[in-house]
Known about the structure:
This protein is α+β, with helices and mostly antiparallel strands. The protein is 35% helix and 29% strand. It has a five-stranded mixed beta barrel.
Amino acid sequence: MKPRHKRIAFIASGVLCLGVATALVLNAFQSNLVFFHSPSDVLAGKAPKDKAFRVGGMVEKGSVKRVGDGLTVQFMVTDTVKTIPVAYTGTLPDLFREGKGVVAQGRIRPDGVFQASEVLAKHDENYMPPEAATAIEHAQKASKSLK
Length: 147
């Protein structure tokens, strides 16, 4: 083989390896991607039925109920227009409160309850997760345009 052909083969194999590595990274990224939806989106059927996703909004006041085992909590998440029931088993963040912003990650059960595997809460008095704030703002604008 001539040196020129060796160089071309080396470059081609390098490009091929780089392409395979890029494909593997993108595949891993796609499988770990979790989308955010508001309660209005979930109830409108825009959320995936077979994949995990995040739902966010405000914890509705008076909706937090602890189930017998002490670790299971049921509450309602609202975007001020629609409300979705959420069930979570585990330790809630210390800052989890009624009337405050929350983002929960999980799946919709067949009975329509969102089964959360993780619950994230605000971290100071003025903070709300950006996704939740945007969802609430869009829901309020949509409800005003319907009136």
